[in-house]
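Anyone have tokens for L1 transposable element RRM domain-containing protein? Sequence:
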Amino acid sequence: MGKRFTTSNQKTTTSKLSTRINKPPKASKDQQNDSEQSAVCEDSMAAMLAELRTLRKEHAEASKDTKESLTRVETALSEVTERTTQLESRLTEYEERLAAAEEKSQRSERALRYLLYRDASISAKCEDLESRARRNNLRIYGVKEDEENNSNMIDFISDLIRTSLTLPGDLNLNIVRAHRSLTMKPKNPESPPRSIIVRFLDYRTKERVIQEAWKHRGGTTYKEQKIFFDQDYTVDTQRKRKQVRDVIKRLKEKNIKAQSPFPAKLKLHLESGVKTFTSLADAAETLEGLGVHVEVDERETLLTKLSRNNWTETSNRRGMMTNADLKGFFYNGK
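Reply: yep, here.
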């Protein structure tokens, strides 16, 4: 029994040994890890290479697009540069034309001011000449129409003057002519009659007659008619004097003494002293302070300012234009 047991144990041991010898040896853990890492590295390299190829392709496409974009930008830039050059050229031309236009405008403004000044000056001279031509004249207001009864007007006026005024009997009136004012005869009998214009040969005789007439402040009487004597003013002077008379009437209502010296001045007697104004436009501010509103013609105000404007040119002569201005008009600024 003991031998069989020993033999069986030996067989078992022998079979185990033979199995171990015939079975291939197992790989170590380090070798397995290395293999796995190598596989992972190869996969990563392959992925990186694929990604690099993609990036290279994309870069090439982007480079191509960039070059095309740069080409377009360069083309556009050249076009912009060309247009900018053209615009600069046109701007220079416009600046030159604008400078010429400004110079022409200034020249035109100087010419306009010159012409306005000349117009005001000539109008004033014409007014003065017309007034001087009327120095020997006087007007008689209030004589009824057809009172002369188709008789000689000079004889009629001579009788009227000597009857209504106290004059020396030996005074020779020397009336040159006399007639009604050259307006339409009023159709309505109630309308004011036309004035009578009387021209004397001698200015001094006219002054003597009118000074005698002015002694009668309320007017004189002829055949129970109220008649008035006054200077033969021009139309413009009459208009201005009428405005001044209206102002004087309102001033008298405020107990302010005022007079109207020739031609249409306003003389105020105030507590601060006597003030004389050449026109209502000059007196407007003072009259406003006195509570009298005056409607002043804007054109008259502007002409008054213009006539007083001592604008000068290079010649330092009032109201003169330069040779350059004259040449500019005759030769169109060349």
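The chain has three domains: 38-134, 135-232, 234-307.
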